[in-house]
């Protein structure tokens, strides 16, 4: 088994302390390889455990976004915009002191990474953005934004279970959202093994933050086209027709590139994290191909 050394560091940011992990294999950056930064949101570093294990020939960096896991907020703010996450990513990259990095970013992390490239493209050589979920680029934009707002409102009013049931229904729906989507009977939390009772907490970053800031983000296409970064927009083959995959296809089209199809689904890189499985071996191979040469 390849020996990997992991070092955990922190970097201070306005309103938060960011925690990140540097995973070094026997070669990695010492052999001239670019650092590979794995980015999720609101998923923390734990979700990339399996994927990182397939890149022991490189130095891999994972991190916990602000207000998630080991990166607590210190300012008491309830919302985090993609641009704020982008500045956090900038701080992590600059703290590494390794120059421009390669980035694989998933879901909300892909939105934040697109914001990073738009603001600081010189810090990223290649970005692979996997299923960035923004409603702003969809032909059914108004219906999608209303559905996301309804999930957020449900969370504030009824708690995690009812809101998460609506979230699962939204993310698994294939095709355009009908105009009456938010007026349809709400799915039962019990159908998904979720609690219907409200425990009173309102600190879930997915339901409390991403359903507003992430899904309503407008990519700066002019800045993305002007950036020196090579941008690959990807979606899982099983995700075709779903919210995040449709968003990815629209972003790729507006950037004038082809959508890259990865194996499996939205969480195709997962190898049992959170009890979910994708096709991590095949996914890692596809990611290597998408990243191209790392030198």
How would you describe the overall organization of this protein?
With 295 residues, the chain is of the alpha/beta class. It has 9 helices and 8 strands. Strands 1-2-4-3-5-6-7-8 form an 8-stranded mixed beta sheet, with helices on both faces. Helix 1 links the parallel strand 3 (36-39) and strand 4. Helix 2 (82-96) crosses helix 3 (108-120). The longest helix has 18 residues, at 141-158. The model has no long low-confidence stretch (mean pLDDT 94).
Write the CATH fold name of the largest domain: Rossmann fold
The CATH architecture of the largest domain can be given as 3-Layer(aba) Sandwich
Terminal Cα separation, in Å?
25 Å
The CATH fourth-level homologous superfamily of the largest domain: Alpha/Beta hydrolase fold, catalytic domain
Number of DSSP helical runs: 9
Task: Identify the CATH class of the largest domain.
Answer: Alpha Beta
Strand order of the largest sheet: 1-2-4-3-5-6-7-8
Helix/strand class: alpha/beta
Mean pLDDT rating: 94
Order of helices and strands: EEEHEHEHEHHHHEHEH
What is the total tally of β strands? 8
Helix content: 25-40%
Please give the oligomerization state of what you see. single chain
GO molecular function, one term: hydrolase activity
Keywords: Hydrolase
InterPro entries: AB_hydrolase_1, AB_hydrolase_fold
Protein name: Hydrolase
